[in-house]
Amino acid sequence: MNFLEERILRDGTVRPGGVLKVDGFLNHLVDVGLVNRIGAEFKKRFAGVEITKILTVESGGIAVAVIVANCFNVPVLYAKKTRAVNMDDDVLTADAYSYTHQTECRLFVSKRFIVPEDKVLIIDDFLANGEASLALASMVESAGAEVAGIGIVIEKGMQKGGGLIKKAGYRLESLAIIDGMDPETGEIRFREQ
Amino acid sequence: MNFLEERILRDGTVRPGGVLKVDGFLNHLVDVGLVNRIGAEFKKRFAGVEITKILTVESGGIAVAVIVANCFNVPVLYAKKTRAVNMDDDVLTADAYSYTHQTECRLFVSKRFIVPEDKVLIIDDFLANGEASLALASMVESAGAEVAGIGIVIEKGMQKGGGLIKKAGYRLESLAIIDGMDPETGEIRFREQ
Question: What does the DSSP 8-state code read for residue B80?
Answer without folding.
Answer: B
